[in-house]
Structures are given as structure tokens and as C-alpha cells.
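ERR on first pass: missing label on line 2. Operator R.T. fixed the label and resubmitted. Corrected input:
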Amino acid sequence: MPDDALFLISIIALPFLGSFIAALLPTNARNAEAWLAGLVSVGVVAIAISFRPVLAAGNVVRAEYAWLPEFGLNFILRLDGLAWSFVVLIGGIGFLVVLYARYYMSPADPAPRFFAFLLAFMGAMLGIVVSGNLIQLVVFWELTSIFSFLLISYWNHNQTARDGARVALTVTAAGGLCLLAAMLLLGRIVGSFDLETVLTSGPRIVSHPLYLTMLILFALGVLTKSAQFPFHFWLPRAMVAPTPVSAYLHSATMVKAGVFLLARFWPAMAGHEYWFWIFAPIGVATLLIGAFMALFQQDLKGLLAYSTISHLGLITLLLGLGSPLAAVAAIFHIMNHATFKASLFMAAGIIDHEAGTRDVRRLGGLYRAMPITALLATVAAAAMAGVPLLNGFLSKEMFFAETIESHVDTVLDKALPYIATIAGVFSVAYSLRLIHQVFFGPPAKDLPRQPHDPVLWMLLPVALLVLICLLVGILPGPTIGNFLAMAVHATLGPQTPTYSLAVWHGFTPALFMSGVAMIGGVALYFALQRYLSGDVEGVPILGALKGKRLFERALVFLSWRWARELEQNAGTTRLQPQMRLLVCVTIAAALWSLFSRPGSLDFTWPSSADPAFVLVWLVGGICAVAAAYQAKYHRLVSLILTGGAGLATCITFAWLSAPDLALTQLLVEIVTTVLILLGLRWLPKRIEGLDPDMTPKARLRRVRDLLIAVAGGAGLAALSYTVLTWPIGNSIASNFLERAYTEGGGRNVVNVILVDFRGFDTFGEIAVLAIASITVFSLLRRFRPARDSIELPAQKSFQNRFDADRYTGGKDPLSAHYMIVPGLIMRLLFPVIAMTAAFLFMRGHDLPGGGFVAGLTLAIAFILQYMAGGTRWAEARLRVLPARWMGFGLLAAAATGAGAWFFGRPFLTSAFAYADIPILGKVPMASALFFDLGVFSVVVGATVLILIALAHQALRVQRVSSDAAAAPPTEGSR
Amino acid sequence: MNTFMASSFGPALPEIILAIGVLVLVLVGAFMGNRSNWIIGTASFALLAAALLAVGLTPPTRTTIFAGSFISDDFARYMKALVLLGSAAAIALSSDFMEREGFARFEYPILILLSTIGMMMMISANDLIALYLGLELQSLAAYVIAAIHRDNVRSSEAGLKYFVLGALSSGMLLYGASLVYGFTGTVSFPGIASSLQGEASIGLILGLVFLSAGVAFKLAAAPFHMWTPDVYEGAPTPVTAFFASAPKAAAMAMAVRLFIGGFPSITESWQQIIVFVSILSMVIGAFAAIGQTNVKRLMAYSSIGNVGYALIGLATGTQAGVQGIIIYMAIYLAMTLGTFALIIGMRRGNQYVETIADLSGAAQTHPWRAFCLAMMMFSLAGIPPLAGFFSKFYIFAAAIQTGQMMLVVLAVIGVLTSVVGAFYYIRVVKIMYFDEPKPGFEKLPDGAQAVLIACSVVVVFFWLIPSPLVDSAAHAARSLFH
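pass 2 clean. output:
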């Protein structure tokens, strides 16, 4: 058994290995390449033949390797009669094609690429037939698509070759993906990806609810690969490939992969009407359309391509009928078609090679110049037409016999004998045309080259194939009998019908049909001969049916135009629409989840409300909305309105008995408003209100934005309200309230949390505050005001002009009088505010206040000094620099925390006691107080540092504007 | 003290190594300026390697520290390793780029490291606060990196856009988190999971919707994908490579933790959202990419589509689905980084070029590079036997295994969009192989070359020995479903 496994794996491994070696050989090593490829093919066939005795006994050879075990996927190779016959076909015809290609390909063509691709393709194809695992099968299936793409586009300097290859790849690879989906479904239905299991679970598959879905996907995969109508258009386009490639791909391999799969899964899937209704009509359509179109082709290879399509339609029809006998006929015809079609393609290649053209109309009378080719081609064409004593006759006879049988009692079934005969008529006609117009009739005159028979080696493959046609046709039993029996038995198993392979069955209806087809075909050809030799391009009637054009148009639409439009309409690179989309989608998602399910938000309106409180909120809300409205047009107004909203928040805190929060909020409001105010100076000038000439569209836009804002705001408010009124679970809040005094030594819970319970957080926060202010400072240090904000603000220059007019006579400079009264008051206020800050700081642990609040208060005092005295005045008197304030604060906080270590406690453990200070009396002295001092110090330092940074802009601008007056504007940014 | 450290900080050792290392590097950079570029670059690699080693040494058992905020399990280890490798590749890719473009700054590796710490926090987050902290650390560093080429208008624009939209989406996530907290009374994922018994309240669902919006933004999943093409195009290429790789993996891990760890009992509720996002991402990723002419924009849409595929795995909510995601992200990382290594090599006549047309005929001027890119493209298109096929396979298989109709349909849509996707990936190959060659590119920088080789090996040879990746992904997925 291990030997078997080794041999089995080498069936696949050999071609891929060969391909790899072939790719490495030098460009001109044509002989070496051909030897290599030939040996590989012979090796494959030899291995296959060595298995024959085992398989003939009805056994199956298997080899398994662990691949993706946790998915239950093993790499399984499985060789049975059907696979075996395909291996022999692929290997055998592969060998002949290699031999032929050696002499066909011109020395200028890069040989390594050709043979490497060809061998890889052969490996992939062999992989399909010996795969014992569905997924593995798809993998090889897609590989054949890729390598056929590479083979078809072999002459890649040629635009049509590239197009043809692309179309082939798109169609077959897309089909392959459908097949993958089908196989995944199939694996799910059966519960295993092992082919063995799948083949034996026919009834289960057919009765499964997913059967139809799976079958359609499967059909898409199979029909695209086998070029069945309406996916047939890729095949004629693929004829731009070198002829050996066509001979290989379109006789024994590529297109046969589809029908192989049909045969492979026939026992598992065919037992249902759906099977008939999907495959039989498509087979019929393809059979007829292919045969009809083949007759009107002017290109030799085109004719063969359409005849291939037609024959594949025939095979699909046979398999689609669902009767075992039809399946036998199908398998037989697969073999026969491979032999005669390969030889015909090769013959066409020889004609092209020797005569320099493939146009049927230009050729004629070639039998004089190339008698051997003519003879061989005639026999092969006769096999294709189904002339007795040739293999094509036998399988066609079986086909005709089968059409007469009744399968599914319908019109289609009843019409089948007539349809088959008509297809036979066309088949005879185009075969006759191929031979008669090319080899007989008046000799062609203006051929590009002088034709003569090619070298022996090129004829040999053709001759061998034709010989097989003859032998099988005359002596079917001894030659192909066992071969076929093995394949059929492996496919159908116990369902194998009795059939007889004889040349003569007596006078049967099938023979009569054959006769009609013969006579009709000959008559049809001679009736149409004049028309066909004329200057006609394309096919009558069905010519309008351009699958390829439809495909390309669909592709362009789907892939290019729609995509572009989608991107143009839905995509944008502008920030505003992107944000709008983000918000809208979220609102929509929220609404959707709100309405898509029963139940609603537990929304309870408050039972009563104090009118004054409601009024405060109304004012606050109006301020907020107005601030948003003015944000673009008047920043100052907007800022003041924001302050109003903040004030409403302060009142709310106070109202809800949180004076400490209210105090903090108030001071934060003041400081931030002032700082932003100072920053506003350097922003670009404001936009003067709404544009009166605004277009209706712009108005609509604004309305839309308003609606979005209302929806978003209302939604958020409603949600916040719901969350706020949601019953609180076990919150930590009560815990803090209980322990603030007993463990933190303070009654101001907020302050205790800040400096004690969450001291470590606060420590981090003050560090961040210090860093942030340093960052602001260093960023603003390099700030260059925008050109349009250098000038003095309008009202100030107005005031200056007014003052200049009024006080021109005075002796003192104007600035001496500037804000003299408020300035004095503000200076006097400094000690008072500082005192307040100290007061707030000291009482902070028990009553509203604390380090943070006190720091902000002192910062306000500094801000007032800046406003009153100006930057220069204030800084000349600044004794403690802000950076030192911050440094001291951080160190104080850290030292307090570290102090706890000396008492063997963790960092920042606090202790408290009451200190008796003269005059003031008993003062609570928690260790947290020192920590709070640190907080205070950092807050003062940070605020003042930002203030300095902003204030210095004023000085710099004066310098800039004076520099600008004196020197070129590029200088003086510092 | 030592035992204390070992017991309580041990699982966070990789993060701690990185964090301390970054602080030291910042100081080095601050004192030495841009002279220290190479020191910091080398040290960053060393730090990432040390962190990777620490991740490897972390015991595979499931441990939580910091009062349950931080979790370490197999899933975390796997994803962290992925993120660390992605970040290292991003630094390697930038090796020559910054000098050539004249904006070499020592901050770049430092920011990448910071972002990496954030990502690792996201992966290990076991409650909403830890998740948000990690997310913000990652994002803030990313905003700065996007705009690191300050003199370039497009780079600045990318940074600004990313920041504004990112802030908005972070707000949404935070809002969702607070709603979830409001309605369940806890922020920890296991806590949320155990408090959800029976039908979820509507408020909670709303919270989930907002959370999903935030997560979708971080993942660049449609309909929150709008920033991606602009940011990818505008940011310097190594930065784009970074954005497309490690943060995606981290965000996906975060989504898995959040949804599967936090809301396992109300799967149907979030499944719908994920399915919707997934379908939209796949469709937009496939169709919008077709019309692109810029490689980086193309990759942006490609990443949107890929996130859509990975989300199929999340939508299943099963162990197989999570395993699929893990494998998907690992392979996606290899494909993306490999592709970007090649995009970085697109330098001609002293400047970087970015259009697809610039690749025309590259097969003749640079056969190996073209081959690698072709492999990447085929792999992204999901063509067997390249790695990209398997990543899709595991995801689709997981969806089909569940047997739910919705998920089967999702898988079918996935297959169809990957056909469309194949179209534009293969178009790149066609342009490289069949179009008229243009002048050659300059030599590939060493860093990019190393990344390219590593990624190509993974992509091309994954099918030979898939088990290391697949098995460890199985372990990682199992650790979530203990």
C-alpha cells in the first residue's frame, strides 16, 4: 500500500516537478524541454497502467495525508476506473501534444514558459481527476483556470490573446468560486468532504433542503468550465492560443473537467428532476447552437471550437438525462471526442503552419500538396460526423438510441429525437465543409506559403489518434471495451446497465436517424456551399446573440461604470460630508434598533418641576444653541453664550446641593473663558453673518444640518435622561459618603476624593496639567500670527483714532491714561483675591473649596493683573515664575505621598490630625493638605504659564508689525 | 516586592517592557535629536523583540490582573505576537523612506511603539475602560504618525481628517460604553455578560449600537470607512502600511473580545449589526476599488473589503468563526505588508510613484518583484493554493457550518464580492505582465526587501505547512470559549 500511495502522489507530483524543472531550463532548450515533458507524460501513463489490474477488479486506490486535520480535511488521492481513464487520456494526449508542440512552436518562442505551463496545467488537471476531497478538487480546479489563462495568453504581445485569456479566466474562475460554494454546501449536507462518503450519500443529498441551491452553484461551476450555453463564448475566444494548447485544452482536458465532474457526481446528485431540468435543456441548447454556429465559421479553429461546444452540449445532455445508459454513452463520447478532436486541432495547426492561413475560404485543394494530412484529417472529421466504422459513430449511435427512450415525460423529452437528428445534420454538414473546402475543390492561389506535408514527427501524433479512432470504430470490444467498462463501473457502481459495444446493431431507429443525419448533412452543405464561400462573416440569425459582447458590456457596467458612479456619488474626500455620514448612520442605527424591537425606552417624565429651575435650563439651552449658531460668524458672541450655558450648569449644581461642584465649575468657566478670549485675538477674522444671496440649495443644506443636529441632540438628551433616571445599582458613591470623614478626615467629600481616596489619580492629573501647559507654552512660542490678524482689531484702531484726535495737545503718552481707574481697582483687588484663595484653600477639606479651587482663584487674580497693567508691567513684577510653581507643586504632592513610606504605609496613605494654631483655633491638618498645596501650586503655575504664552503674542505682534513696516515681510517672525 | 511584581504584573510584562523602553527612547531622542535616529530605530526593534519574547514566555493559562481589567490568554498572546510582528515590519519598511523623503524623525519608531502598547492593551482589555484607554493610546499615536510628514499638505490633511473623524467615533464608542455601563452597572466584560440574562433592554441595545459604530470606525468597516482612502493615500507609504496592518488586527481582536466576551448571550442582537457592516464593507470594498488609479487607495478599499470578510467570522460568534478571524488577520497581515513593501519600492527618478499605471510592464524590468506582487494579488483575490484562499476558506466554512440561513447568505455574498475583488487584483497583474514596460524602479531598500521575502514565503508556501498557524489559532480561539 505505501508503494501505491507513492505512485499515486507521483501522478500529480511528476508534472509539477517537471514544470518546475522546465521553468529553470535555458530559453533555447527546446529538445530538452520536449524530452522532459514527454517523459513526464509517459511516466504518468505508465503509473496509471501499473494500477490497472487493481482497478479492473473494481477496487479503489486511496492515499491520505494529513492536511488541515482540525477541519477534517485530509489530502486524499483517490483513483478509480473513471479517474483512471481520465488519467490515461490526459497523460496520453498530453504526450502527443508535447511531441506535436516540439515541432509546431517556432524557435523564437520561449520554450521553458510553454512547457512549464503545459506541465503545470497537466498536473492541475490530473489533480482534479484524482482528488478524493471536495476542497482539494476545487483547489486544482482553480489551478487549471489559472494555468489555462497563462497558456492562452502565451503570445502575450498579442492584444486578442490577452483579451481571450482574460475572458476565459474571468468566466472559469468565477465559475470555480461558485463550485467552491457548492462544495462547501455539499460538504455540509453530507457532513464530510471526503469524496467516498459523498458518492455514497446520494439519497441524503437529493432530499436535503439545500439541494437546489447547491445544485445551481454546482451547475454554474461546471457549465462555465465546459463552455455550455450561455457561458460558451470564452471558448472560441481562447482559440488565439497556440494550436497545441487548443488541441490539449479543448479536447481532453480543460473543457472536459466540467463534464468529468458531472459524471463524477452523477451517482450522488442525479437522482432528482432538478438535475434533468438544469442540465438537459442547457445541453440541448448548447448542442444545437454550437452545431449551427460551427457551420458558419470561416476560421478553421473557430469551426472546431464551436463543434467542441456542440459536442460538450451533447455530453451534458446525456448526463443530464439521468439514465444510466445515457451516462455510459456520455463517458464513451468523452473518450471518443477527445481522440478525434485532438487530432483535428492538430491537423488544423498543421494547415495553419504550412499554408499560413486558417481562413476556410482562402484554402482549397490542399490534398494535392499535403496528401497525408488530408487523409488523416478526413478520417478524423468523419469520426466527428459519425460515419460508421469510426469511433464517433458508436457513441453517436448510443446517443440517438438514448434520445428515443423516455425519461421525464415532457415536451422536451418527446422532441429529443428530432433535436438530436437536426444536430446530427449540422454536425455532418460542418465536418463535410471542413474537409471539402480545405482539401478539395479548386486549389487555392494566393496562399501566404507554399503548403506541403510537415515533418513526420508532427504527423505522427495525428496519425496515432486517427488510428485509435479507426480501431475503436471497427473493433470496439477488444480495444475500448475494458477501458470503458472500468470507467462506467466506477461511475455507476451497482446501477451499471447492460450495454453492447458493437458496430452493427441491426436496423434500429438510431441507425435510421444516423442515415437521415448523413443525407441531410450532405444536402445541407451543398445547398449552403455557395453562400458559405461568399463574403459572409458571422452567423445568420444567431449572429446577434453575442455572448461575448453581452459579457463584456455587463462587465464594464458592473465593474467600471457602476463602480465609478458609486464612488462619485457615495464617496467623498471632503471632511464635512464624511462627518455628516458618520453622524447620520449612527442616528439611523440607533433609530433602527429603537423601532425594530418591541418595548420602548422606560421614559418617565419628572412628576413636577420648579419653574425657576426650568427657566434656568431654558436659558442655558438657548445659550448653547445660540453659541452653536454663532460659532461660525461671531466667535466672541459664541464664547460669551457658552459662558452662559456654563453658568446654567453652575446654578444646576448649586440647586442640586453640590456647592463645591458649583464653585469649581464657576471658576473653571471664568478662567477658560478668559484664556479662550485671549486666544480668539489670533484667529482669522470673522465671517459677517449669513450670505444674503444664499442659493436655495445652500438654505436647504442648512435646514438639513439643523435637522440632523436636532435629531442627534434630542436623541442624546433622551438617552442621557433615561440613563440618569435608571435605578442605580450598588454604586460606589454611598461608600465615599460614609467614609469621607471617618477615614479621610474631611467633610467635603469631593475634596477628600481628590486628595485622598483618588489621590493617585489626582497626582497623575496634575502632572498632565503641568505637561499640557508646558506644551501650550512651547507650541505658542513658535506661533506666527496669520497675516490678516496682525492688524489692530477694528474697535481698537477706531478708539486710537478717536483718542489721537482728542488728546493731540497733551504731554503724556496716551497709554499712561489707558484704563487708569479699572486698572487701579484691579491692582488693589490682588491681595483680596489672594486672601480669598488662601481662605478657600484652608477650609477646603471640610467645606467647599480646596487646592484646585484656590489655585484657580489665584490664577484669576493674575489674569486681572495682566488685563489691568499689560504684559510688560505684570511680568516685571512677577516674582515666582510659573514653572517653579508647577515644579514645587509636583514635588510637594510627590513628597506627601512618599512620606507615607516612612510610616510603612503604601504611597499616598493619608493621616490627619487637628492642629491648634494661635488665633485661628483648631484647624484640621490632614497630610492631604500638603498634597492639596501641591495641587494648588500646579494649578496656579499652569494657568499663569498659559496666560503668559498667550499674552506674549501681543508683544510679538507689535514686533512683527513694526518689522513688517521696516523690513521685507519674510523676516521677523520671532 | 519581587513576588508581588511577578504575581500581579507578570502577564503585562510585554506592555511594561515596551512602555519603559519608550520612555527611555523619548529621553534619548529629546537629548540627541535626529542624530539618534539609528539608535532609536535599532532599539525599537530590540524592544519589539523583547516584548515578543515576553509574549512567548507568558503562560498560556487564562489570567486576569489589575482587578480583572487586563486579561492574558492564548488569544491575547496570539494577537499580540501578530501586532508586534506587524509593528516591526512597519518600522522596517520605513528604513530608507524617511531619509529619502527628507523627514527622518526619531519620533516615528517611538510613536509606532506607543501605538503598539495601545494595541496590546486593546487586545488584553477585559473591561470597557481598559479598552478605551488602549484604543485612545493607539489612536492618538496614529493621528500623529499620519501627519508626520508635516511639510506635506496631503500628510497633514490625512492626520487632521483622521483625528477629527477618529475623535467623533471615539466619542460614540465612549457614549455607547457609558450607556452599557448605565444599564448593566458594570464595565467589565464578564460582568456585563453575567448581568445579561434573558431579553436585553433597549437602552443596552442602543449602547451596543454606539459601541459597534466606534469599533467599526477603528476597523475601517463600511459605513464608517470614509476616512480610509484619504488617510491611506495622504499618509507616507510606510505609515499607510502600518495603518493597514497591525491596528487592523488589534481592532479585530478588540471587537472579538468586546462582542464575544461581553455580549455572548445576546448574540442575535449584535449579529445583525455585524452582518450588515460586513456585507456593506465587502460590497464597497469590491466595487469602489475598481475605479481606483492610485495603488494606496486601491489597498485602502482592499482593506475595507478584507475587514468585511473577517467580520463574517465574528458574525458567526462561534469558536470556528473566531479561529477563522485569527487566521484571516495573520494572513491578511502578510499579504498587506508584502504588498506595501513592493509599493515602497516604487521609486523612480528620485521620487515615489503611486499609480497603478506606474507598474506597467514591471514584469520585464523587475521579474522577481512583479512575481511577488502577482502572488500577493492572487492571494488577495483568494485564488488557491495561495494563503489568501485559505483565510477566506476558514471564514466561509465557519459561516456555513453554523447552518444559519443569514450566515450562509453572507458567505455567498462574500464569494460573489471576492469575484469582483479578483477582477481588480488581477488587473494589477495584467498591467504588470502585459503592458508596455516603463523605466525601472530603484533598488528595493533592505528593510522592505526583508519584509517582502518573509511575507512572500508565508503567502506562497502557507499551504505546505498550514498547521502551525492553524493549530495555534485553534488554541487561541478555544481560550475565548473556555
